[in-house]
Structures are given as C-alpha cells and as structure tokens.
Amino acid sequence: MISVQEAHRIIRESFSIPDTEELPLGHLPGRVLSQEITAPFPLPRFTNSAMDGFAVRFDDIRETSRNSPVRLQVTGQVKAGDSPGHTVKAGCCIEIMTGAPLPEGADTVVAFEETSGFGSPSVDIYKAPGQGANIRRCGEEVASGETLLLKGTVISPTEIAVLASFGYAEALVMKQPRVSIVTVGDELKQPGTLLRGAEIYNCNSFMLEAACRALGFEIASIGHAPDNRDLLREKLADALAEGDLVITAGGISTGEYDFVQEELSALGIREKFWSVAQKPGKPLFFGTSADGKPVFSLPGNPVSALVCFSEYCVPALCMLQGKPVPAKLQAYLATPFPADRKRHRFLLGRLWAENGRLHCRVSQKTESHMITSSAGANCIIETGPAAEALPAGSQAVCTLLPWASLQPPQQE
Questions:
Q1: Strands 395-400, 329-333: pairing kind
Q2: Distance set, CA 136 to CA 46, 91, 98, 115, 291 (Å)
Q3: CA 248 to CA 284: how far, in whole Å?
Q4: What is the rounded CA–CA span in Å between residue 280 and residue 268?
Q5: Of 62, 111, 200, 377, which has the most beta carbons under 10 Å away?
Q6: Same domain, 334 and 371
C-alpha cells in the first residue's frame, strides 16, 4: 500500500507530451495551445480615429472656443474600411468615422459632439482637444512579431477574439483525450428498470460520464460487465481499443468476484500501483497499456469512485491535454474534521468565501456508500493521518470539484 503522495508521483511520471492537432476557431474553446502565437502585423494595423468626428490640423483649431468657434471647410469623408488617400489641408477638415484611417496632414480628431455636426460644406469647431487626441496610433497596442498567446494557454472566448483579430483561422492544440468507462457487477441495473431481490441501480456509470462531459472530455465508450471473466475481458478490451484513457468502477477489491485487476493484467496492462493508504478509496488501481494508455480502476462505492476520480483521474486528464492540474486550497474548518489514524482521509464538503477567507464544512454523511453526501457539495476536504479530529477553526486542504464553483456564505 502506497501513500497518496506516492500515487500522485507515479501518475505524473507515467505521462508523456500530448499529441497535437490543428483545429478551426469554432472548435478551439477549452483546448490548450501547443504553439506560441505571434502578431503577423501591428495593432492597430494603421493609424485611425478613435471616434466619430472631424480629422483636423491642430494648428487650425488651437484658438477655438464656444464663444469664438473656428470654421473649417469640409473636403471629404472617410469611414471604416476606406483606403487611405485623403489629405487635410490648412483651413480644411474631413469627416471621419470610428476606425477609419487618419488622412494625411491631420494630427487630431475633434469629437462630433464638440462641433456643429455632419452634413454641411463647413463645420464650426467649438472646443479643441489636446493635439493628437482621439487617435489610435499604428502598433500602439501590439507590435508586429510580438507574442500574443503563449504555448499552454487554455483557449477561452477572449483568446478566440485575439486569434480572429489577427487573421488566424485555426491553431495547433493538444489533442483532447477520449475516455472509456466500464462499470462492473451483477447487482447493478440501469435506472428506469425494475429492481428485484438485492439489485441496486448503477449510478457510477452516469456519474462518471457526467463528470467527464462537465470537464469537456469526449466519451469514447460506456460499457457494463457482469461478474463474468470472459465478458469482463471483452468489455475491457473494447474500452482499451476505443479510448485514450480507461476508467473502471467496481470489481477491484479482494472479493471472490473481483476480477478486474487480473483481467487487466491478461490484456497487457502493467500495474503501477494498487491500494493507496486513503479513506475512502483504498482499493485504487493504476496501470498503463503497452502503448501508454492510462487505466484507472476505481472502487465501486459511489463516493469512493467520485473522490478517486476527482483526486487522480482529473489531474491525469489535465496532463493528457496539457492543462495545469487543479490547485489545492487552504480553508478554515467550520466544523471538526474526523481524521483517520492511519490513512489520508477525503470527505465531500462545502467551500465558501466570507470576510476575505475561505471556509469549509464537511458533509454530514461521511461513509463511502452514502452518495447523497455529494448533493450540494462543491469540494473535497482532506487531511493526512491524525490521532484526533481536526477542530473547528483549524485549516484544512480543499480541492474545488472541477465542475463546481465557490458557494455563497454558509448560513448557520
């Protein structure tokens, strides 16, 4: 049996650099850049007007005022998208729209609101802004060749805007891993069917699928195997063939019908570890196939499966696509944490911010078969082995569930 820290080290060392693929803009959100993006041209690409108004020579309007306006002859109009070509001469001006290229000879733009308005052969200027006002200079935001986005950036709508603004129609990103899920057990039945005898409903299959989809991962396959070696091996073989990462739930302990570990070995999966000094989730298996595909076999108890998925599978999935592993947070316990003398303990709970500090509270139901403890939980709270419970007010380590967010302050 290994420690939680050792389990994480082994997992980290089992991953290589993810493969890459080129995708169009519409398929990039949530993906990780595998290249540095540089500016192919300066931004703005040309000097242009920051607002609607008149392009003028500052010397012509230097002495203007509301009581003694300067009148200029309007010799043309330039709007966004027009090619440069106009020239502003002494005593003249040109109507200009936001984003339009600044005409030659002009060095200032007077806002429309400070003039007598558009549509006349001449215009009165009531107020002179500072020289060079209301002008966006070529390259003032970004110089040509400047780095726009770093390799490893997770692409959001704002990065899409940057890529599109510089004419990038596609980008090279890390491949998104496809996940295969297999649940195991004669006792498990599909929701919506009638239970008989000691049967129970299969919640792990749907929980793990929903967790993967909430994180943006594609599901390669979902299967269920009874406690039958031949059928289990067939399901596991299919999962390995179809997915980039395989997650199983159930059949990994030491019971008479727990065949998963043996059947994975028969399929060529090399065991990296089995059994971690933690509660819940002691019977956790991790291994890799000959071509490097990771396999996680989680316990069948739903809370154990959820904890192990969040603690180990989520970081692995992040590494497979080049994303940073979710950070652990320090929070103050609002209630005692029932530590375990010998094992690292994980419990579902609630995390919130209040008065500039993070606070957490353990869910009331703490046993690994009590899946209702996950309802309303947004984090996992953990502590190393300890002889006594951590008292309220002490600090504990929390991991925000990757599909959850900080909740409002806890109401007593």
A1: antiparallel
A2: 8, 23, 10, 21, 54
A3: 10
A4: 28
A5: 377
A6: yes
Answer yes or no: are the C-beta atoms of 15 and 132 closer than 8 Å. Answer: no
> SS3 for 407?
strand
Beta bridge partners of 273: 286
Structure tokens given for 352: 């919130």
Tell me the residue length of the chain. Answer: 412
* CATH assignment of the domain containing 34: 3.90.105.10
CA dihedral 239, 243, 249, 254 (to 10 degrees): 60
Give yes or no for a contact between 260 and 254, defined as CB atoms under 8 angstroms apart: no
Structure tokens at 330: 């320090």
Which residues make Cβ contacts (< 8 Å) with residue 264, sequence separation at least 6?
236, 271, 285, 287, 295, 297
CB atoms within 10 A of CB 139: 17
Alpha carbons 376 and 408: distance in angstroms, whole number: 12
User: Which is nearest to 315 in space by CA: 357, 358, 286?
Assistant: 286
Tokens describing residue 125: 């200027």
176 CB contacts (<8 Å, ≥6 apart)?
Answer: 31, 216, 217, 218, 321
Structure pTM?
0.84
- Residue 32 phi/psi, 5° resolution? -115, 125
Distance CA 251, CA 105 (A): 80
157-198 confidence digits (pLDDT tens) = 999 999 999 999 999 999 999 999 999 999 999 999 999 999
Bridge partners, residue 107, by sequence? none
Are 392 and 371 contacting, i.e. CB atoms less than 8 angstroms apart?
A: no
Count of domains for the chain: 4
**Per-residue pLDDT tens digits for 361-391:** 998 876 666 778 788 899 999 999 999 999 9
CATH code (residue 395)? 2.40.340.10
What values do phi and psi take at 262, rounded to 5?
-65, -40
349 and 314 inside one domain: no
What's the CA gap between 271 and 264, in Å, rounded? 9
Parallel, antiparallel or unpaired: strands 48-49 and 357-362: unpaired
Q: Same domain for 279 and 377?
A: no
Question: How many Cβ atoms sit within 10 Å of the Cβ of residue 393?
Answer: 10
